[in-house]
Amino acid sequence: MSNQEAEYQQFTGSNQKFISDSSFMRYRLDSEPILARIETFLKGTKRIMVRDPEGNFFEQEEEISTPLANRTGVNQLMNKLHTIINAQTVQGNLDTNHYYELIAEWRGDLKDDLIMNCSEWGIEDNKLDYIANTIMAIVETFFTRPINNKERDSYKETMVSRESISDSFIKKKGALRGILQ
Question: Is 59 helix (H, G, I), strand (E, B) or coil?
Fold first, then answer.
């Protein structure tokens, strides 16, 4: 690479690496943190970082309250939620009416599941609404993203490549002189 090419690259800004690096897409589509929050809510735990005697850090769950469901209940609810909250569903395209229909259907299904299985899942009757309302608040917020295709539209804005050449480079060397020769 010539000095002129190196200088050109120094004065040219690009977000092309950001575009070719798919980590931002993984971050936007990763539903695991949302699901992990729901799971810790049901288990009555929180995740903390702990250091072992050798100085290594690791994540551990610490109980902070009485679990809202037993292991079977937590697993069954999380299995259901994984089918609803995931990278594929957030990329859907819902109109507003369809969104409200889905939310009403899921809320009803969740309440039915909780009521029908509360004994087997170790859920106290007085916690049914609390569990349903908390989970649905998260589901409702998550599903605002695909309304009118806004989630995918927002990718376009994120992935726009912008190239610029600084004025000082143009005045000093001339735009693209030396590169195109």
Answer: strand
CB 96 within 8 A of CB 146: no
Q: What is the dihedral of CA 174, 179, 160, 19, to 10 degrees?
A: -140
- For residue 122, give both structure tokens: 């170790």
Phi first, then psi, for residue 162 (nearest 5°) are: -125, 125
Helices marked H in 123-164: 128-142, 150-159
Q: What is the CA radius of gyration of the chain?
A: 25
Residue 165 contacts residue 175 (beta carbons within 8 Å): yes
Specify the pTM.
0.67
Query: pLDDT tens digits for the chain (181 residues)?
Result: 555 555 444 444 444 444 444 665 666 677 898 999 999 999 999 988 998 999 999 888 899 999 999 999 999 999 999 999 888 877 777 888 988 999 999 999 999 999 999 999 999 999 999 999 999 999 998 888 777 755 555 555 555 555 555 555 555 555 555 555 4
